[in-house]
Automatic annotation (TrEMBL):
Coiled-coil portions: none
The keyword Cytoplasm is annotated on this UniProt entry: no
Alphabetical keyword list: ATP-binding, Kinase, Membrane, Nucleotide-binding, Transferase, Transmembrane, Transmembrane helix, Two-component regulatory system
Organism: Spirosoma profusum
Catalytic reaction annotation: ATP + protein L-histidine = ADP + protein N-phospho-L-histidine
UniProt-recorded name of the protein: histidine kinase
PROSITE patterns recorded: HIS_KIN
Amino acid sequence: MLKSFDIYSQNNILKIIVALNLLLVGTGSLLYTNRLINQLETREEHYVQLYANSIAFVADTSHSNSGDLTFVTSEILEANESVPAIYVNPDGHIAMYRNFEVPLEYDTIPEAKQKYLQQKREEMRKNHPPLMVEVGNGVRGLVYYNNSSLLRQLNYFPFLLFAILAVLSVLAYISFSSSRRAEQNRVWVGLAKETAHQLGTPMSSLMAWVEYMRSDPDQYDASITDEIEKDVQRLETITARFSSIGSIPTLKEENINDVVKQFTNYLARRISTKVKMSLESQLPATQEVKINKLLFEWVIENICKNAVDAMKGTGELRLNMLALPHQQVAIDITDTGKGISKANMQKVFSPGFSTKKRGWGLGLTLAKRIVEEYHSGKLFVKSSEVGKGTTFRIVLNAN
């Protein structure tokens, strides 16, 4: 016996593989970039240490006659063109700063400039501990510093890279999901149209048999023939429904009270006699809603049959029609069945989800699609309690 091939499960596996690869690339890039940052940070610290040693050398008066060495150390001091630094002399005054600009409004006023530099020094102290500068005779100054612009960019780069990979992951997921939905739609549409096509031949034959039975009323009871004809007409309706799947339906102003009442009367005679079915309307008698009658009756049928199954053929099925604010109408369908657990509350409209052994899990999915995509309405579980029952609500625009 051949095992069935689930293309959707394969798509899920492919999505997981892509996500794992993106995660590996992102993690690898993050670790490698962090390694580079740490190396660069160490190098900059050594760079600042060299800068500090140069300051110490220049400040030490014992080297005052060594012109060449002073020139060399001055060159080292000038060589620091990237790391922001502030030198505080042994007296606690800021004697030198490099690689950042003092705003013009502070630069022209000595007191304001010193205050700005002190704030900058405090900011640097929070980022890195200061480096000691031995200026001779046990006297010490301090060099405060910040990360260079390049190091700051590298610090943010891993997060930017991770964000890019996250966006790519989301786009890949959306792409796979869209592909899956498109493929599902093609399968459902193809299946529906093929079903409609296959029903055509036996229906033609049944109509011929109905005409034959009417031609001999003495042998065939007229009431039985009428019921058979109704069921054949019902089959025609079902065929029309299946044929319309995948096409944009035509919506027409219909009296919603009449549509629901006529269909529930038909349905009440064809479900379990142990199910008490009732309909109550609080809508105006002339309330009209723009719907596709064939498809909307399918919604009512799917929800009602799902409710009968949940009650195992015994219980109460109540339909209540009421007006909502913002020119909307609602149809509540309440059963006294087994209810829906919280874990399954979000799954009931998912394709393929069913608690029945022989269920296909398509009825509520189709109902939701018809209401929300074709009628711009809403279909949701209004309330449910395990062991007591469930209420589905359909919301339609009345304007």
